[in-house]
Amino acid sequence: MNCLFCRIVEKKIPSKKVYEDEHVFAFEDIHPQAPVHILVVPKKHISTILEAKEEDNELIGRMFQTANKLAKDRGVAERGFRLVLNCNRESGQTIYHIHLHLLAGRAMHWPPG
Ligand code: AMP
Ligand code: ZN
Q1: CA of 45 to the centre of ligand 2 (A)
Q2: Which of 6, 31, 40, 68 gives 20 to 30 Å between its CA and that of 14?
Q3: What is the C-alpha end-to-end distance of the chain, expressed in Å?
Q4: Could you tell me how many helices (H) and strands (E) the chain has, helices first?
């Protein structure tokens, strides 16, 4: 499948890996928007969150647990962080393999741009 994040998960394309287990892979965003900007992806290809099925609930939960762990590891859990999951065009989704953005290390604005 011609999917950038599947290739990263398979290590056919290099990335700065920060975490990996049987189900989830996390790596540094190539264009960081904050001092901490990590992408957490399921190893299973799911193109948008709209395609996530009931059977994927545990996997989606694992993505959030991984983000929690990485926020603690990076020492930003207490001061705060933002988790973003874009879906389809107007959200700005550019890679059609779901990914949770973990953003931290600076004050975030609200509403987002
Ligand atoms: P989204 O706009 O939510 O689809 O986010 C896609 C993210 O993937 C962007 O923040 C990009 O900077 C990031 N990205 C694109 N290509 C790579 C890559 N090869 N390695 C790491 N991050 C990437
Ligand atoms: Zn994929």
Answers
A1: 4
A2: 68
A3: 32
A4: 2, 5
Which atom in ligand 1 lies closest to the alpha carbon of residue 94?
4
The mean predicted confidence, pLDDT, of the chain is: 98
Backbone phi, psi, residue 36, to 5°: -110, 120
**Residue 44 and residue 52: Cα distance in Å, rounded?**
11
Return the ∠ at Cα 43 (arms to 41 and 46), rounded to 5°: 75
Ordered DSSP codes for 62-105: HHHHHHHHHHHHTT-TTT-EEEE---SGGGT--SSS--EEEEES
Per-residue pLDDT at 68 exceeds 90: yes
Ligand with an atom nearest the CA of residue 12: 1
Kindly indicate the confidence band of residue 113, based on its pLDDT and cuts at 50, 70 and 90.
confident
pLDDT cut 70: percent of the chain above it: 100
Mean pLDDT of the 37-49 span: 98
State the pLDDT at residue 1: 75
- Output the ligand 1 site: residues, CB below 6 A: 4, 15, 27, 29-31, 39, 86, 92-95
